[in-house]
Amino acid sequence: MYEGKIILLVCDGMADRQVKELGDKTPLEYAETPNMDELAEKGVTGLMDPIAPGVPPSSDTAHLAIFGYDPEKEYPGRGLFEAAGYGYKISDDEVAFRCNFSTVRKRGNELIVVDRRAGRISGSEAEALAKELQKIDEIDGVKVKFVHTLEHRGFLILKGEGLSANITDSDPHEIGAPVLESVPLESAVDFEDAQKTAQTVNKFVLQTFSVLNTHPINVERIKHGKLPANIVLPRGAGKRIKLENFEERWGMKPACVAAGPLYRGVAFELGFKLINVEGATGLPNTNIKGKFEAAVNALENYDFVFVHIKGTDNLSHSKDAKGKAEMISRIDNALPIIMDAVKEGVTFVLTADHTTPCSMGIHSGDPVPLLIVGPNVRRDFVKNFDEISVVRGGLHRIRGKELMNILLDVTHRAPEYGLRPSPKRVRYLPKIWNALKLNE
Ligand code: ZN
Ligand code: ZN
């Protein structure tokens, strides 16, 4: 019934390294995962380097690669996806940035980062502060728009002629480090535009400090022993580039079941239909069963359904290995919903977008485990799904950008190399009758 259809489940940052407190096992080895193991036994497994061996991927570049795009040439910058995740499609003359409300303290002429998330400020306080910042609507002729999203997060849009995304971040991504001056990337070919954009960003950052540092909400926060949200730090400049539609590229109608805005943004920009699920939060408490049910239902109208679970990465960033293993078990527990569809002929892919070792709390360049199961998949010997067992799997070690070709092949969509044009270029004969002006 579902022959040729694909469900891709990405558990964000699920891959890990051995953890001492788990008896020297990875969370995936430690977790109870009878269903993942059954699927591994029925399918083919291996390792995947989302970008390249040893390169720690960001989530958006990893997803682009897994969807068969080349992040070297087809990466518009994170800001574009973040804005798109909140339904804001940026235009050609705009540059978008992901932002955090953060806490800084003055040290001489420097602003030192005390907390990158402003003590996890509440959404309502951040919203009130954002209202103040929205009074900054223009800097040196460049239109400025700051939007608060969730908790300490937001995005910034600059609009005007001659703006560039080829600039560095203000956010040093490190506690105790000074806020950085944004400058053009060394590789920037549009140096003058990049210079102008970087200067606008620098002025914006300093203005946010001057507006926020003495704001009554922050004075009140300090009084109650909380960290003030006294600056906004932009990062991940993004500008629109031409991104080919997923359906045009791969000949499959795609849908996305994700709650995290970044993932929804990537999928939206590639032309995926976004499916909303009640109780899907993008956090460890998400409605996993609801998401899997929505994915199976979407097979009715879509060929390629991408399901994203974010909580595994959140727990890795907070170095909670037990919690991560427990969440993996909960994912496994809901898998029978998808396994029923596998029995009906769906091809199912299970993987992670990168490794996030709980010991580090950040992304690493270790490869991730990969599993493909479906009616046309050649089975290997592997009977367990984890980072170590799949080393012996039949897929061996592939790169993220190779996955889509493998999926085209096992769903019988791949044209024989050298003989036929790619599916997207097929034009049916009747369509060219008119052009040829032949008698019918
Ligand atoms: Zn990720
Ligand atoms: Zn992460």
How would you describe what is shown here?
The chain has 440 residues and is an alpha/beta fold. It has 2 domains: 6-75 and 243-439, Alkaline Phosphatase, subunit A; 82-238, no CATH class. 31% of the residues lie in helices and 19% in strands. It has 15 helices and 14 strands. The strands form 2 sheets. It has an 8-stranded mixed beta sheet, with helices on both faces. Strands 3, 4, 5, 6, 7 and 8 form a 6-stranded antiparallel beta sheet that branches. The longest helix has 22 residues, at 191-212. The chain is globular, with a radius of gyration of 23 Å. It starts with 5 loop residues before the first strand and ends with a helix. The protein binds zinc ion (ZN) (2 copies). One zinc ion binds at residues 13, 59, 313, 317, 356, 363.
Q: At the first level of CATH, what is the class of the largest domain?
A: Alpha Beta
Strand order, biggest sheet?
Answer: 10-9-11-1-12-13-2-14
Ligands present: zinc ion
The oligomeric state of the chains shown is single chain
CATH architecture name of the largest domain:
3-Layer(aba) Sandwich
The gist of it:
This protein is of the alpha/beta class and 440 residues long.
Write the layout of secondary structure elements.
Elements: E1 6-11, H1 27-30, H2 34-42, E2 44-49, H3 59-66, H4 78-85, E3 94-107, E4 110-115, H5 123-133, E5 138-139, E6 142-148, E7 153-159, H6 191-212, H7 216-223, E8 231-239, H8 246-250, E9 254-257, H9 261-269, E10 273-275, H10 288-298, E11 304-309, H11 311-317, H12 321-334, H13 336-343, E12 347-351, E13 368-373, E14 396-399, H14 403-410, H15 433-436
Parallel strand pairs: 1-11, 1-12, 2-14, 9-10, 9-11
Antiparallel strand pairs: 2-13, 3-4, 3-7, 3-8, 5-6, 6-7, 12-13
Helix pairs in contact: 4-9, 11-12
